[in-house]
Each structure stands twice: as structure tokens, then as C-alpha cells.
Design brief:
The structure is a homodimer.
Chain A: H1 7-11, E1 27-28, H2 40-49, H3 63-73, E2 80-83, H4 86-97, E3 103-107, H5 114-120, E4 124-128, E5 147-151, H6 163-172, E6 177-181, E7 202-207, E8 220-224, H7 226-236, H8 246-257, H9 259-282, E9 285-287, E10 294-299, H10 304-313, E11 316-317, E12 330-333, H11 337-351
Parallel strand pairs in A: 1-11, 3-4, 3-5, 5-6, 6-7
Antiparallel strand pairs in A: 2-8, 7-8, 9-10, 10-12
């Protein structure tokens, strides 16, 4: 650090994303990317957008993209906010809704970016302890906090809550904003989007990075009532007028319009997930019931850290978090069938 | 507003960018875009990057792009920070270097995003009054402020300061961070980049949106000593791990590598600027001496607002700010020779 650093930056521990290695080709099962390319229509849209027009600013309001999202989710354009990845959308939620010194709440085992956002924006946080089976005890969220953040399915466990549980929470705490991060919802969980017209304290955040194979182009969005999206627009317009570039806007629009491709690839990933879970269990893993494009698994005899290191040596990257409570677990992204067969083979060899 | 809005967002007036109209085709001289397309190598790079790999996250550290920038400016990679447009880079400077309640200083006539950033991050600001000729009186910046923000050339005047003046300021206030926004520096002004090795209180911010014709892809950067760029990395990694998408990284890399194209198009814009300035003066405009890709001009007899409205009716968009001191001025982006000839013709018709 040096004398120009702010106090907040001097004291913060930034989020560490899964590694993007450059040393050799790995089978990447560490950052929950989609193993399938985006719809061919997406690549076509990018090629069509590649013109002299990149000299011009993109539409700062991303109207065409918002309209496409609104059509898909049957909401109004004014209920949609878009950002440079759902991480940016989540980050914007803090200055939009929380004051420095306010308290927000989230599960103790969850997306590890939440405490980092809190520190960056000077917001206090408290955690609700997930149960022994890693399910979130929604009843434990208390009134008096300014906001609740909860991924559904939760990360990195993959466990999905029933939307009925979230609805109960929305009813019980009408003055607390509940932000549901649905990054992984398309792999078998139920979305809370249909509840946004019923509860003005609900904001749903989603991403194009997982189920729509666009991690490389950075597009995320939020759906909620107009008052909430307007607050996000105000933050965006006080931060960066043009957050999503021309190519990304067009690509995301094409992605959300190809419903058939989206459903087909998501179904394929779910099939592969179920097969992989069974195989892992046969090898002596405890595997949490996942509705995401990853599995969270712990082996009875071999430590997660050892497996992580040995898999890396074999050219397979998975994610290992050193946080207490989950340091003996691996988060394994669902790849293609071939990727997962190879993973199982390599693990089998380690079991002998 | 509603009960979930934060105090800051309830009280803020977001920045308003120049309009990006959708109703009809205009000659856009209102947002300082480059009239020329990016280098053909940029479009080629985008096409090459359009592959199944968009399913994968981009390099969060944008190493290849940083290396290309470092080579061009003869600095070390560790002295380069990149962001989603220079607006994001400038926004990140606030939590990186300024604490809530600190005071920063900038000219009273300058980039109108500065006060908005200040309010968003709870930072106080004071202004230094530009002279009657709109030059910045650098001697008026006082010690005791945490940071100074100054565009060079200044916006929206286009007036460039001598780097000697900025160096004097860096020497005089060694404990104040001076952020020089060089968005328009490539159109005839001198860059402060060579000073970053001499002064650890200097951060230079630049963009690919103007001189490199990439407004549509959102890439900006900062150059400064490692301590400063590290603070920015910490903010970025506490906000959004992947701020620049795959396509934008590749495009910007190709843009900065085509030095010859860059110099040629910048020279062309400067020629057009000089021709346009002379023509405007012949029509009775006062035109400030510009080193940017725009002119700031005021007519002796016809109000800026009237000219703005009448030009819009004629299909030409320019920028008119309603701020005191500059509300009788127009900011006119330099387009192609044809664009400017048409502008002059239309204005001439309004003078009779």
C-alpha cells in the first residue's frame, strides 16, 4: 500500500476468481462456464455487429436487449436492468440500496463476493448459518437488516430452495430488500421472477455467463419493480454511462431469443450432472443435491485439497475454497460428457 | 424514489451523456466519437475472436492488452490498469484513493462527470475557477485536498495545458494525487505519461473511445506507478473480476498495435479541426484554441441554444450544456470533411 490508498482499499481482501491458466490447456471445471458454445445465432450476431460502427458509443440504455429480456420473462422493459456481468449488477445494488453503516445479511456459506462488496461500500454484514446439510434456514433471517442476499441455487453448494420459502421471507420482512442471485437457476431450479409483480421488496439477478454460454462477453441483468431498477439506473448513470458494449448487447439479445438452443443445452448439462453425481457417489464421494451447473462433493477418505492438487497435475481444474466449513469440498463444474468421463477415470485411478 | 433507495441515490443527479438518437439518422457531432472506423486490423481481430470461446471468461487481468499498452507507452505492465471505458477507470479512482468526507478539487468548467462521481462516493469537492479565456489557473489548486482531477485537454473547452504547468503542480503538492484525464490528448496535446516515473502522485487516464475509434467497445486505461495501479486493481477485484470482455480486449490490443493508422487518422482529424475553426470564425463564432477532437464555439449574435435546436432540425447533433458560464457555447465534434462542410453550410444559412 502507499500513502494515496483510501482506508477501505487498504483494509480489503478482494475476491479471487477461479484461475484462468495460461501455462497449458486444462479441462476447465473451475469457473462454472458452459461447456457448449453459445447458439450459432449469437456468433452470427457478433459477426454482423463487427463493422465501422464500433467507433460509435453503444446504446447507453440497451433498449433492444432489455426488450428481449422483458419478452422472455414476461415483464415490462422498465422492470429490467442490465449490467457488465451480474457481478456489476450485484455491486451496483450496494450504493443503490444500502447506506454506509447499514447491515445486510446472507448465508455463511455462499458466494464469496458478498462480503467483499459489503466492505467496498462500507456496509456491515451478518451471516445466517446454513444447516448441516448446507440448506439455508430462511426462518433465521431477521427483520431490521436493510437487505438480504441469497443465491438460489446457492453457491458453491448448488442446493436450490423452494420459491415458497423465499416468498415466505418476502412476506415476513416487507421492508427488507431481498436480492435473489439466480446465476444458476436455469439448471433445474425455480425462478422468483414471477414474484416480482407481487413483492416490491424482491430483486432477481441473473447472468448470461452460465446457461447462455456468454461468460466471455459480460452481460448480467436484474428484474424487479420499476422503483428498484430505477435506483440501479441512477447508480449506473453516476458511474459509467455505457456499461455494455455494442457486441455484447447484440450477442446477448440473440442468445435470449434462441429459446430452443438454451433449453436443449441446459437439459444436456443437467443429464451430465446426474450421471456425474452417481459416478462420484460410487467412488465414495458425498455429493450435495445440485440444481446448478456444478456439483459440490467431498470424499470420505481423501482430502479435497489433495484431490484438487492431483487433478490439477492431471490437467483438470476444479475449484477448492479454503474457507472453514467447506475446505474439504470441491466444486466441480459440469463439462461435456467426455470431460466428466475423464474426470471420473482420473479420480478412479486416485482411489486405488 | 421508494423506501429501498439509499440516501446517496435519492439525492444524486446522474450524468447525462450526449443523446444517441434512434428516431432518424443524424450527423453525430455530439459525443466526440471518431468519424473514422477503427483500423482494419481491429475488425479482423474481432472476427478472429468470434468463436465458441466466448463461452469462457476473459482474462481477468487482461495481460495481453496491458502488455500492448505498456509497449506503446514504454512503461511496465504493472504500471498499466485497464477498465470498461475510462469512465469506469475514473469511477474506480474514487474508492481507491479518496475516503468519504475527503475533498477533491477540479476546474469549475470541466468534465461534468467529476461532481457526480464525488457524490456517488461521498467525497466532497471544490472547484478552481477557470480564467476568462477558459484556461485553467494551475496555481490556484491548493494543498490540503486529497486529489486533483484535471482533463488535459480540458473538456468541454478543448484547451490544452502545457505539461510544464502540470509538472509544477506535481512538485508543489507532492502529497496530493493528481489525476490527469487525457481522453483527448492524441489530437495535438502533450501527454504526461513520461512523468509517471518521476512523480508518484501522478495518474494518467486515457481511452480507446476517441483517437482509437473504439467507443462502441468500452476500453480505457490508467498509467501510473505500481502503487497507484495496485489500488485500482483492488477496487476492480472487489467490484467485478472481469470488467473487459474477450472481444474488447482483442480489439483494443489490435488498435494500439496499429500505430501508423492511429497517427494518420488523428492527423486527419486535426486538419479538419483547423479548417472548421477558421470557417466558424468567418461566420462570426468565437472558437477556443482546441487540441481535442472537438471545438468549443460561441456565436456573437445567435444563442447557442437556438443554434443547437436549429442544427438538430437540420439533422446535425452537437452538444449544448446548460451549465452557467458555458450555456452560450456549443461543443462540436470533428467529423469527416464532408460532415463539417455540411455543418458550415447549414450554419451559413442560419446567419442570413
Amino acid at each position: 500500500m502507499n500513502r494515496f490508498w483510501s482506508k477501505i482499499i487498504s483494509g480489503i481482501s478482494p475476491y479471487v476468481p477461479g484461475e484462468q491458466p495460461r501455462d497449458k490447456k486444462y479441462i476447465k471445471l473451475n469457473t462454472n462456464e458452459n461447456p457448449y458454445p453459445p447458439s450459432p445465432k449469437v456468433l452470427e450476431a457478433i459477426r454482423d455487429e463487427t463493422s465501422a460502427d464500433v467507433r460509435l458509443y453503444p446504446d447507453p440504455d440497451a433498449i433492444a436487449l432489455k426488450d428481449a429480456i422483458a419478452r422472455f420473462y414476461q415483464v415490462d422493459r422498465s422492470e429490467v436492468f442490465v449490467g457488465n456481468g451480474s457481478d456489476e449488477v450485484l455491486a451496483f445494488c450496494f450504493p443503490a440500496f444500502f447506506n454506509p453503516g447499514d447491515t445486510v445479511s446472507f448465508p455463511d456459506v455462499t458466494y464469496s463476493f458478498f462480503p467483499v462488496y459489503s466492505r467496498l461500500f462500507g456496509v456491515e454484514y451478518e451471516t445466517v448459518r446454513v444447516a448441516g446439510d448446507f440448506s439455508i434456514p430462511f426462518d433465521d433471517f431477521r427483520s431490521g437488516v436493510r437487505g438480504i442476499l441469497v443465491p438460489n441455487p446457492n453457491a458453491p453448494t448448488g442446493i436450490a430452495a423452494d420459491t415458497g420459502e423465499i416468498e415466505k421471507l418476502l412476506k415476513k420482512l416487507p421492508d427488507t430488500l431481498v436480492i435473489v442471485d439466480e446465476a444458476y437457476v436455469d439448471f433445474g431450479a425455480c425462478s422468483c421472477v414471477p414474484l416480482v409483480h407481487k413483492y416490491d421488496n424482491l430483486l432477481v439477478v441473473q447472468t448470461f455467463s452460465k446457461s447462455r454460454s456468454l461468460a466471455g462477453l459480460r452481460v448480467g441483468f436484474a428484474i424487479g419493480n420499476k422503483g428498484l431498477t430505477e435506483a440501479l439506473e441512477r447508480v449506473k448513470n453516476s458511474f459509467n454511462s455505457y456499461t455494455i458494449d455494442r457486441v455484447a448487447q447484440k450477442a446477448a439479445e440473440a442468445a435470449i431469443e434462441d429459446r430452443e438452443y438454451f433449453l436443449r443445452t441446459a437439459a444436456r448439462i443437467m443429464d451430465t450432472r446426474e450421471y456425474t453425481a452417481k459416478e462420484l457417489e460410487r467412488l465414495g464421494f458425498v455429493v450435495l443435491p445440485s440444481k446448478a451447473n456444478f456439483l459440490f462433493a467431498s470424499h470420505k477418505n481423501i482430502s479435497a485439497e489433495e484431490l484438487f492438487i492431483r487433478l490439477r497435475q492431471e490437467g483438470i481444474l476444479v475449484r477448492h475454497f479454503k474457507d472453514p466449513r467447506i475446505d474439504n469440498w470441491l466444486r466441480i463444474t459440469i463439462g461435456t460428457d467426455d470431460d466428466m468421463t475423464l474426470l471420473i477415470e482420473k479420480l478412479k485411478a486416485m482411489m486405488v
